[in-house]
Structures are given as C-alpha cells and as structure tokens.
Amino acid sequence: MTISDTEIPPYEMDDVPDVRALPFPRRMRLICRMWASQQHATPFVVIVMYWLKYLIFFTGGWIFVSSFSTNYTGLTSIGDWAFTGIAFKKAIVWAMFYEVAGFGCSFGPMNARFKPPMGGFLHFLRPGTTKLSLFPGLPLFGGITRSGSDGSFAYATISGRSDMPVNFVSWYDSIRFANWLHNGQGSGDTETGGYTLLGGTPTPTNGLSITRNAGATWFLTSEDEWYKAAYYDPSTNSYFDYPTASNTAPIAEAPAGGGNSANYNLAVGDFTDVGAYISSDSPYGTFDQGGNAWEWNEALIGGSGRGLRGGSWFSSSLSLLASTRIIDDVLFETDETVDFRVATVPEPSTAVLAIV
To answer: What global pTM score does this model have?
Structure first.
C-alpha cells in the first residue's frame, strides 16, 4: 500500500455511531489501528511539505543563528564551523526555541490535526489569550543580563538580585571563579591558580583529575570543609542535623525569620539575599547552608560527578539534612537552583577558614 492510498477505517461505524463519545483509550486504539493498517494515507505532496518545514525552518534557522558567530565562514565551507562547540550549543538553543515557539507543532493529515496550522506559533504570538507566560508563578531565572554579540558581550546584574546566589553555573564555572579571585580579579587568569585546568577549552582535558593546588588562597570548599562549617558545634564537639544550629528542621518562611528559619519548601518561591536569615547561622557563623541554593563542593563522586549539598528554595527539609548529599555532572549548568560557595585562608600562617 502506498502512502497516498486511503481506505474506509478498519472498524464498523455502526458499532461506534459516535466515535467522539468513546472513552479516550478506545478512540486511541481505533485510530492507531487505522494508521497501522493504512500507513499514513497521506498524499505525497504533504509528506514533502512536512520535510520542507524541517529543512527551511529548523535547519535554516540554525544556520541563521550560527551566522552571527565569529567562526562562521559561509555555506560553502560548512564543515569548518558546523561541528564546533558553539554551533552545537546554538543548535540546542534553536531547537528549544523551535519547539517552545510552536514551529515544531505538528498539523495536517499525518497528525490528525488540521487547524489551526502552526497553532503553537499562533498562540505564542498572542500573549494574554491561550498562550500565557512560559512559567507563570516561577521566579525570574538568573540574576545576570547579557548584551552585545559574540566576542564583545557585556554583563550586568538584574536590579534587586545582586545579593542573591548566582545560578546556572557548572562545577568548572565555580573553580574558574575561584582562580579569578586567587589571581586578583580584573584580568586575572581563570585556568591556573587554586586549580589547574588544562586544554584551553571550556571542558578541560584533565577535568576528572582536578584537585586543589597547594598554596591556593581562594577555592571551592571541600565536602568536609562545607560539612563542618554547616553542622559542627565546637562547644559540644558534636554535629547538628541541620545547618541552623538545630536538630529540628528549620521553619520554612520568609526572612528574617526566627532563630531556626530557612528559605526552602517554596516558602518564598525564589532566592533570598545572602545572609537574610540573620538569626539562623551555623555555630561557625555561616549563613544559607540550608536552602536558598544547592552548592557545589570539590568531592569527586562516582568517578565522573561532583558533590552538591544544602538544598534550595525548592527543596524539602530532607535536602537540608547533614546526611543528604547529591551528585551532578560537572558540565551541568542549566539548573536555576545551583550555585557555589568559595572559601579563603586570609594568611598562610592562620588556620582560620573564612567562608564567603
């Protein structure tokens, strides 16, 4: 049977006088049987148009956004730029936009939906009607804006969020920031200092073997350092269950809260300023190690991931417990609830660890 053939549905209409009145599973079973027996039953020209949509809108759109990259050299030399890291990143971003905007919204005989054509895209362009904000009620993602173009980007903090945790950061972002601090900020190097990252690429060639260098003045906390700063009580030589100097789960509430409060369990629904819970510090005087944002640490777990602790504004109280540790890929930087905590030893001769 060819794709242009059509037949009467393979079920008796007398048996189902009103298909729309049937339970959804039954309707799905009937239509799937019909598609399986007839293949697509779609004119060839529709198939062609379907694939032209992908060629023109999907592939063409990717080429268009890639043309703004500095390494883009044109369609005649596509092999020189199409397989670079930035081209793949833009392909992913474009694919996400393609679907969210509704370009990928299928319609026509192949999908049993005929109108509105490109319905998702039409709704995307009609805010206030059937297309509402993408994530209604969720906080503003990120605290940094970017302007400019490849090679000359400029960054600025969003008003009102400069004292909140930075998010969407990978483990490599974290140690590069520590290196930058170690090297005096400004134009300081990000590949050497507290840590050595080899290869000169976003993903270092020695990624799984990176450890803190001797003499590091700024660094990501080790898991032991993070844990002790959060839970240890030097007055009793024991550990609390929660990083608010308590064995009882803190109250999930807005700051400033009481003597045992934290930003978690959607109590605020967004980040809060660092140190906002002024009466809920750990015995060592650190803030926000429970809730607000998950924090990277140096621990290499399972041979390929790094450790995270502390929970976030979205987490339950279980994430704040001393017994809770999670692992994530070092390249992972798409989570709005993950940030990091750096530490410094002000003077080589002192044993005091200042966590900031």
So the answer is: 0.59
